[in-house]
Amino acid sequence: MPLGQFVRWLVDETGVSVIVDAGAEDQEVFAEVRDIPIVELLNAVARRLGLSLREQNGVYIIGQSQPQDRGVLVRRVRRLSAEQLTQALQVFGAESGRSVAFSDGLVVVGDKVEVLAKVASMLDQVEATPVPVWVCELHLVGWSRRAAEDFGFDLTPAADLAFGFAVGSSGFDLDLDLGAALDGILRAASERSDVRVSSAPMFVLVDGATSSVVQGDKVPIPRQVTTDQGTTRTDGYDFIQTGTDVSLTLREVDQRRALLDLEIRMSDVRSYVELAPVTGEETFKTTAAVEAGGVYLLGAIVKDRETGEDSVGWRTNDAFSREVHVVQVWCRVYRIAGGLSQHSIEKDSYDARGLLDELSPTEAGESSEQVRPMSPAGKEGASGSEPLPLFNNTVFRVNFGKDKKP
Questions:
Q1: Which residues lie below 8 Å from residue 43, measured CB to CB, with a gap of 6+?
Q2: Alpha-carbon distance 207 to 254, whole Å?
Q3: pLDDT confidence of 259, banded at 50, 70, 90?
């Protein structure tokens, strides 16, 4: 049927107010729907005919959208930065609208009303999404050759553990308590001079964030310049960072597991050549899958420069540095915030559902006022703030295009 005839029938059946632009009344439409809100039906019809639907004071208008018909959405989003908000709004890619995001989280969007509704829904979901927070504590433990032998390691401590990991991955049962092993190592580090914890940074990270820490000294390098008289003088200094540089990125896989991207650089000054320091550097980089509450040996760095010079990664003029054999990288991880799955909620020791069962509906927060269903001819659904009526078990047809079905 023509669009004008369809709109007149729709107004008689539901009581909503609809206006159709001139020239659109004769366009043929066809549709068959059941139990659909009025606003979704009008949106589908308008979209199929290449028109737009807008609402003004409870009146729905079907026709070509004009610049003055655009709406404006202004709200503050507390979770995303201005750059992240801009990227999120680009998902819609509307050619007719514009959006601006500010550093304080305020976002202004100007577009069609139906697009603004989708933007508002998207921002609501962004703010409602839980923010997982993890704690990661690293321990960089240095072993001397003598300490490794005293603790019963023929080659290196990591070799025995690597063999144990290989056995466990082959399908055999393996009882390897790394938490107890780390506790024993930390106790040994407090009692022995040849076992040392060189660095123990702790990070509190949100999902997807990167944290870093630099622990060491900046070595000055003088900038020598020659004057017109042929003399040499110092014109400022350049600095080289030495010590331990740790960078950690966490990406949550699910509510119990995460991926850690860890990079550790250890450097120190070994000697000087014409006032320029010669530095040695070792880099450890890995990606590991971890579980909340777990203790992990992420890897080990073997020191092979055991000469009279200062060893890489440790302070200069330290007798212990010249005896370092292995540096182990240990990690503890915990999940302290974020949404929990239904399985995790059921395992919680406190069962809130038992308490809710004892409460009356009013005490449990349930409203005593019931929602009253609306009749198809009700007028309350016509306003923009009220829910629109549904077509209950009603089938109607509107012809999209020139060909009519019998």
A1: 53, 114
A2: 11
A3: very high
Tokens 């995303």 belong to residue: 80
Q: What is the pLDDT of residues 27-66, one digit of tens each?
A: 777 767 677 777 778 877 777 777 777 777 777 777 776 6
Contact between 33 and 10 (Cβ < 8 Å) = no
The predicted pLDDT at position 262 comes to 92
Residue spans per domain, the chain: 3-63, 70-129, 134-307+322-337
Fold of 3-63: Phage tail protein beta-alpha-beta fold (3.55.50)
Distance CA 74, CA 277 (A): 57
146: its two tokens: 């003598």
Would you place residue 224 in the very low, low, confident or very high pLDDT band (cuts 50, 70, 90)?
confident
CA–CA dist 67, 115 (Å, integer) = 14
In sequence order, what are the beta bridge partners of 37? 390
Rounded Cα distance between 82 and 102, Å, is: 5
Phi, then psi, of 369 in degrees rounded to 5: -85, 120
CA distance 210 to 204: 10
DSSP three-state, residue 15: coil
Classify domain 70-129 by CATH number. Answer: 3.30.1370.120
What's the token pair of residue 35? 């139990």
